[in-house]
Design goal:
Length: 222
């Protein structure tokens, strides 16, 4: 039998196969890195807003409670963004002529809501519900970070499936008394971790939470 492949062709084939294998590994690493990167998770990104609304100023500085503006958060799926007349309870008297508030005045005059750019959003195929989390005492800060320190609103957590599941499989240590959910710096129990742990364990029973079922697909994909 004559030799079909020369020796050098064989070497070239091996080299080519090695390259394909390396490229495959590279692609896996690249996709993995992408999923972790802030580009995919959008953590820390701010968007151009029609009005540079500052939670740092209104929450951190003035001490306004989340529920004053996000009124539906305890009772519905959505927390909702505040309608313009909520801003005007103060800004019809304060900073009335400020150019930065012109879009707020326009919105009130025309009845068209301010076109806020969303920073915390899930894909449509995921079901989320604020009311149940608030009712069980999962604090805003756990999912939205230190909003009270944000001059412009940014996303604080990845909102990926794994992040949801990490808590659903072990929610006990994250629970607070529900009347403390909007507090950003709740530290009363920091010196007593055992008290917090005990509270969490107790409330899992009181609410009848079943972590083993909270990661079923149809909890979030309905
Ligand atoms: C309870 C009162 C109150 C409400 C409600 C309120 N603001 Fe303000 N806002 C203030 C005060 C007070 C200042 C001025 C703070 C200062 O000058 O130190 C301010 C300042 C601002 C500024 C100037 C930039 C800054 O942060 O200093 C913007 C923009 C603004 N508010 C937007 C809004 C929007 C939009 C809403 C509605 C979603 C809103 N505010 C609701 C009290 C309020
Ligand atoms: C004075 C009214 C006001 C108060 C009080 C307030 N917010 Fe907001 N919030 C807004 C407005 C207006 C927006 C839309 C503009 C923006 O993203 O900054 C917003 C946006 C947000 C967003 C981003 C939503 C999205 O998808 O774009 C989150 C998360 C949020 N607020 C959480 C909170 C939390 C948590 C608190 C309490 C610690 C709070 N807010 C208190 C007015 C308020
Ligand atoms: C368990 C995590 C979690 C907790 C706790 C939580 N949020 Fe959210 N929040 C989310 C997610 C996820 C979204 C995006 C929802 C979507 O796009 O369907 C969101 C969206 C929002 C929005 C945008 C408007 C909307 O309804 O989609 C606001 C405002 C907001 N949250 C405020 C709050 C406030 C205020 C609290 C505390 C009282 C709070 N959230 C507690 C996870 C949470
Ligand atoms: C820090 C903890 C925590 C995080 C993060 C969290 N959850 Fe939850 N979730 C809970 C708890 C506690 C409950 C209440 C379970 C119960 O009462 O049985 C719950 C309940 C739910 C329910 C209602 C289940 C039912 O039986 O009606 C849905 C839907 C849900 N979560 C979706 C999500 C999604 C989607 C995310 C991520 C974007 C998420 N959750 C992130 C703690 C969390
Ligand atoms: C606690 C809520 C929750 C549960 C339970 C859950 N998912 Fe998801 N899932 C999510 C969220 C949030 C996303 C969106 C992730 C993103 O945008 O990066 C997602 C995305 C997905 C996607 C799209 C691809 C991806 O990974 O981003 C698939 C497929 C999926 N889930 C399948 C499942 C299956 C199968 C189960 C059951 C074994 C399941 N999910 C259980 C919250 C959940």
């Amino acid at each position: 039998m004559p030799q079909i492949f020369t020796k050098s062709a064989d070497t070239r084939l091996r080299a080519a196969l090695l390259l394909v294998a390396l490229a495959a590994v590279g692609a896996v690493l690249f996709i993995g890195g992408y999923m972790e990167s802030s580009y995919a998770t959008l953590i820390g990104w701010v968007r151009d807003q029609p009005v540079p609304f500052s939670h740092e100023h209104h929450v951190g500085g003035l001490g306004i409670d989340c529920r004053y503006c996000h009124t539906a958060v305890e009772t519905s799926e959505h927390a909702d963004l505040p309608p313009t007349h909520v801003c005007m309870t103060c800004h019809s008297q304060l900073w009335t002529g400020a150019p930065v508030l012109a879009p707020v005045r326009d919105s009130l005059a025309t009845g068209r809501p301010i076109a806020w750019q969303r920073v915390a959003r899930l894909p449509d195929y995921v079901y989320f519900n604020h009311a149940i989390h608030i009712d069980r005492g999962v604090p805003c800060v756990t999912c939205h970070g230190r909003i009270d320190r944000m001059p412009l609103t940014a996303r604080a957590e990845p909102f990926q499936m794994r992040w949801c599941l990490d808590c659903h499989r072990d929610p006990a240590p994250r629970l607070r008394p529900p009347d403390q959910v909007t507090r950003m710096d709740w530290s009363e129990w920091d010196a007593h971790p055992e008290r917090h742990a005990l509270y969490g364990e107790m409330m899992i029973k009181v609410y009848g939470i079943e972590p083993a079922k909270l990661d079923d697909c149809d909890v979030c994909h309905r």
